[in-house]
Amino acid sequence: MNAEIISVGTELLMGQIVNSDAAFIAKQLTGLGIDSYFQTVVGDNPGKIKEVIKIAESRSDLLIFTGGLGPTQDDLTKQTVADHLGEELVMDRTGLMHIRQWFERSGRSMTQNNERQALVFRDGIVFPNPIGQALGTYIEKNEKGYLLLPGPPRELEQMFRQSVTPFLSDKYEDQQVILSKTLRFFGIGESTLTTLLDEMIRNQTNPTIAPYAGKYEVTLRITANAATEAVCEKLVDETKAEILAIVGEHHYGDGDESSLAEVVGKKLLESKRSLSAAESLTGGLFQSELVKVPGISEVFAGGIVSYQAEAKQRVLGVPEHVIETYGMVSPECAVAMAECARELFDTDLAISFTGVAGPDQMENKPAGTVWIALSKKNGPTAVQGFRFSRDRLGNREQTVLQGFDMIRRHLMDSDLER
């Protein structure tokens, strides 16, 4: 069984809307063990839609359409697919009642064209829309399946989870299970990572290993297929263990949704270590990312953004001679900032950031020059220097990530010492 995703909407072709529907459906299909080799985007044109349908029918068993089910003149998906198949559309009474009630609750008058959203295949299956109006519908013809879903992401996702997933699971229960896990790495480039894992990648069969270069990190997706989920999990876990034996130092977490800030925040909470911060070039960006972690107030005491020399001295407490002797863009200043913050907030750890975000140089230091220090209550202050070559925002973002990674590595080493 293989499926093809057909997204209908001129706004998608023009780049006015990001096609998040296709990404969501593809991920759900993978979990159901249904292969998906093609994704197509087509405008609101009946002739073009029919061309796309014919091509999809020649190579796919299940055609999944998103978008074009609404009440306006350019919502043509249902009518076009029905015309192509020679199938009749009928009004679903339950769906029509739901639409009318929706308008009554919202205090708006319902125009007749909204009734089109309750049209479904006469001999097909209906999928209710719990948070919207356009119904989903499915029909089979000539050994092909045609699944039509609404375009708004929230509506599609809820309909898929509540109705479509159980339907497809039951219909294609003999499909092999496909399971994927994403490993996230920071502080190592894609080329270096793949070189270190070259033998594993060249000899891969099941599971497969696919590297992806992100904005500041690298991810590896391990994908296994087997008769049961338990077998898939065993294959994925074994492969993960082999990978981490080689490049585990740079691995910070798993999953598509995790972030370095999230991982560090959770580790701080688990270890009950308190943290404070002193930021210069990052301008509060580190603290902004950290406080996105739920419950972080239990361990994050606070921080100071001290951009100018006077603020570093008067507010943070950096000794005047440190700045006069070494400058603000120096390891000595970074160390003093971190130690002052830790003492000021009385925390177990404190991190500091100083440097030149750009685009111009400062203190004869080129843009991208960065110093990060980590002060510890029970240990020496660590300091690291970096040279980044991005734009002003990129240098700040990469600096923050390096800071999180510095804390992560310290917490890992501390756990090993226990």
Keywords:
418 residues, alpha/beta, six-stranded mixed sheet, five-stranded mixed sheet, 25% strand, elongated
Mind explaining what this structure looks like?
- With 418 residues, the protein is of the alpha/beta class.
- 42% of the residues lie in helices and 25% in strands.
- The chain is built from 15 helices and 17 strands.
- The strands form 4 sheets. It has a 6-stranded mixed beta sheet with strand order 2-1-3-8-7-6, with helices on both faces.
- A hairpin with a 2-residue loop joins strand 16 and strand 17 (379-387).
- Helix 2 packs parallel to helix 6 and helix 10 (260-271) runs parallel beside helix 15 (392-417).
- The radius of gyration is 28 Å and the shape is elongated.
- 38% of the residues are buried.
- The mean pLDDT is 94.
Rg over CA atoms, rounded to whole Å, is 28 Å
- State the helicity in percent bands: 40-55%
Unreliable stretches covering 5 or more consecutive residues = none
Q: What summary fits the major beta sheet? A: 6 strands, mixed
Structural class determined from secondary elements:
alpha/beta
Arithmetic mean pLDDT = 94
Q: What characteristic shape results from the CA principal axes?
A: elongated
- How much β-strand is present in the residues? 15-25%
Sheet with most strands: strand arrangement: 2-1-3-8-7-6
Strand runs, count? 17
The protein's oligomeric status is single chain
Distance between the termini: 51 Å
Note the total helix count.
15
